[in-house]
Amino acid sequence: MSLDILNQEPIRFLLSFGVVLFLVLNLAAIFTMAERKVSAYIHLRFGPNRVGPRGLLQPAADVFKLFTKENLAPSRADIWVFLAAPIAMFLPAALVWLVVPFAPNAVIADLNVAIVFFIAMTSIGALGLIMAGYGSRSSFSLLGALRGAAQMISYEVPLILSLLGVIMLSGSLSLVDVVNAQAGGFWHWYFLPQLPMFVVFYIAGLAEARRVPFDLPEGESEIVGGFMVEYSGMTWALIQAAEFASMGLISAITVTLFFGGWQPPFEFLDLGNFNWFWFGLKTSILVFTFQWVRWSLPRLRMDQLMDLGWKILVPASLIWLFVTAGAMLLLPSVF
Amino acid sequence: MLSEERRTEQVSLGSRASARLAGSDIRDEFGLETLDMNMGPQHPAMHGLLRLILELDGETVVRCDPVMGYLHRSKEKISENRMYPAVVPITDRIDYMNNIAMEYGYCLAVEKLLDVEITPRADAIRALMNEFGRIMSHIPSVGFLMLELGAFTPILYAFRERERIQSIFEAVTGARMMFHYIRIGGVKADLPEGMPEKMWEYIEGLESRFDNDFVDLIEGNEIFRARTRGVGKMTPEKALEMGLTGVPLRCTGVPFDVRKHYPYGWYKNLDFDVVTDAAGDVEGSYRCRIGEVRQSIRMIKQILENLPEGEVMADMGRRLRPREGDGIGRVESARGEYAVHVVSDGSDTPYRVHYRTPCTVNMQLLQEIVPGHYLPDIMPIMGLIDPVSGAWDK
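Structure tokens for the assembled complex are given below, as produced in the milestone run.
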């Protein structure tokens, strides 16, 4: 009886949101650690190994350091915009986790328009970036924000187009339905029939998460951090958390759409309610590829980024969209 | 009334900004104006302390004014107040990526005034260490180019090689960076026991690693090509007109190398090619540097194969008093032609020392080449010049 109250809609939702926030913040910490260890592995060095066993408590030490730091704002900054920007960046990245199916029956909100929700939320992420760049009142931030806005709006188009193939095949906008439609071994996963779409989605996802080679808004070597050049302390940490959360998010959504979500690769490996293991494993592998790319490739230039988006990714996804539609029309028995 | 400082600022900012300060309208027909941006001196990609005053039209650079002098340490004046041998450690600190060539140039200039005969072994060791110095400078500069393009990993591989060469230098000279090894009349000490074998072993190892760690990792990368091909393009005429030397000149196809055209020391006996590239852009400069490292490896092998025996220091008095007159030492440093002009009045301190560092001259490139490029292209162009803060400010 006492637990029933937890199942009532507003309370359940608030609790779930608390769980998601906890998860996302911890994920950000874990991803920071992973990032440092992966980069160390690629650079042939050790990485953090002093705090705690094998350096595993390093993220805790980092967060503690960031908490004790002063939050500085430039004197000319538009202070409300400046302070609201990290929140505007973090919230959308955290909210989409609400619709991600982690395991059978383990999804917080099974929206019937979950994919639209995902698209809407990633678009809002660009707003936070513009706010950060504009609110800082610095030419470096402004350039970073303008680059970020142009990049995220351009890459939204291939991102959405590449989703359409999956939506057509599964016939649903709900992520749970998409996962269920991919049941029965890895040859049923959508990355096989939708390989070009998967590649486009992965590249556009890299751009949406602002990861190398598309980290132009940050542009470490020319605009030294871009939109976040003026941030420090916890506001900076929140932006970082948003970046890592959106990296994890793009991986999780890619896994859900193209790699069967929590579906095991073979039927006999079905773990029932513990299928979140497969979801976690696949997401971790994708996150690792993100980090691998990050520490191997140089950055693109703005015009080259636009060329890639509009001249290659958009036509490629459009062509494959027609191929998928044609195949579905001509061979209805297969689909 | 503007303060003196402010007025200097205004002059350096140029006419457009002073027009703005005077309150006149600088908008174009669409009501748009360009963005002034101050890059540096504290900026991670400025190779030290360089300040660029940029005028941006969107992402396109309209004007680029390099402002030097943030690392000025008055090397030339300090040199006037020290005795001749005591200037050598000062020269070490000019180009801190390629110190050994800086010592070499100064010693050559003073030796011309002293009319001293350098022993063959000293000459050979000088050339040997100089080529090691070149590798030690070229490999990180390729890494820095990648760092500026956004790839972080190659610089760490580059510094691994640099560290290994520094260990060789430590065994030979006693220091990892500020060597004070080449002295007037020879070198400080002979190579330690077993050192030539160790050097040979290292060079063989570098040769086997080199293609894997630097060429394959960088050259085959599509983004690297897209970012560097055609960026910073210049003609050989333009390069000669600006007085460029070193890799920025050779990458346009002009085969000028002091080691070849005005040979000094042991370089007369060495067989090597001047590496040129017709491209004249950042990618060409990268290929030049890679080629020069290969030539350096070749030269080191030649020197180690027949290293002459004998003394390493010429017999001079304890106190050096060169004859009156002036001596010029020209060497090919990793960044271009480095020349030292020493004027002697017959006393034991130089009357005047002038260091012609290649970085100062090559820096003109920024003003000439950068306008018209995108903002992120400044960084690879800096990588083409590969300047060192200590060397352009002295």
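Residues 6-13 of chain B have pLDDT under 50 and may be disordered. Strands of chain B lie at 35-39, 51-57, 60-67, 182-183, 186-187, 325-333, 336-344, 352-356. Further analysis is deferred to the final report.
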